[in-house]
Amino acid sequence: MAVAVTGATGQLGRIVISKLRAKVPTQSIVALARSPHKAAGLGVEVRPGDYGRPDELVSSLAGIRTLLLISSSEVGQRTVQHRNAIEAARKAGVRRIVYTSLLRSDTSPLSLAPEHVETEAMVRASGIPFTILRNGWYMENHTQSAKAAVAAGALIGSAGDGRIAGALRDDYAEAAVAVLTGAGHEGRIYELAGDEPYTLAEMAREISTQVGKEIPYRNVPPAEYASILERAGLPGWLAAALSAWDADAARGALDDQGHVLSKLIGRPTSPLSVAVQRALA
Fold it and tell me: Is residue 62 within 8 Å of residue 91, measured between CB atoms?
């Protein structure tokens, strides 16, 4: 088996490769990276993986049986970039594509959803056997604010009482490895999310417990939250997106009760306490 992982130097890609190395021979793993020198420490073969160079992608996918297409981090450019990767896989004779999509992408109100829907359609149209991993929210998306919340004396957001079925990147990476190394996954679409949905108020209470002082959750309107984020140094587009995703979470867009992720990895997903502990470390 020869597996290639796109975005190998990214936060999810690095974890996937590390977990893959514990399951299959190192020589059967290929890391695809836009900047190959950044992947030097991964311990596997590294090949160029620039979405903007489709001919180079075809060469890099030579001899690859399975491609893990981790969705690009460049929101707004994903459809074009993913099309290049899928077409390169077809030309190179890749036998299977595993794609990391978004929880309930076909019905999700999140602004992230359309590019995932388009990519899923392209994967199906490629004629290559596939598996779709519809990843839910990464807990790190919210817990990365834990230290700032402690410094500010409050956790701020716009998610209200919306429940968020988040999981750690470790959990989603383990699911990807289970699909890459297991059988019976072709044609399947997995809706993946954490076992124990939480609210941001519950996250604030967990932070409070771990630091030994009260850190309340302060819910604010999305426009105010976007303004706070922008004043903190985030680009305007990102501040607006984060506040909009919180607003979607308030309406239930990030909740899930399916427990598909824990069934796929054969263990409960990581609890919020572990995610907060890591963020505060």
Answer: no
Tell me: do 117 and 199 sit in the same domain: no
Biggest alpha carbon–alpha carbon distance for the chain: 58
CA quadruple 145, 275, 44, 20: dihedral positive or negative? negative
CA distance 104 to 221: 25
CB-CB contact of 266 with 163 (8 Å) = no
203 and 91 co-located in one domain: no
**Phi, psi at 45, each rounded to 5°:** -65, 135
Instruction: Give the pLDDT confidence of 126-166 residue by residue, as tens digits.
Output: 999 999 999 999 999 999 999 999 999 999 999 999 999 99
Contact (Cβ atoms closer than 8 angstroms) between residue 198 and residue 216: no
The answer to whether 111 and 79 are in contact (CB under 8 A) is no
**Rounded CA gap, 21 and 65, in Å?**
17
**pLDDT tens digits for range 192-223:** 999 999 999 999 999 999 999 999 999 999 99
- Evaluate whether 105 touches 160 at the Cβ level (below 8 Å): no
Domain containing residue 275: CATH number = 3.90.25.10
Nearest-10 Cα torsion for 141, 144, 149, 154: 20
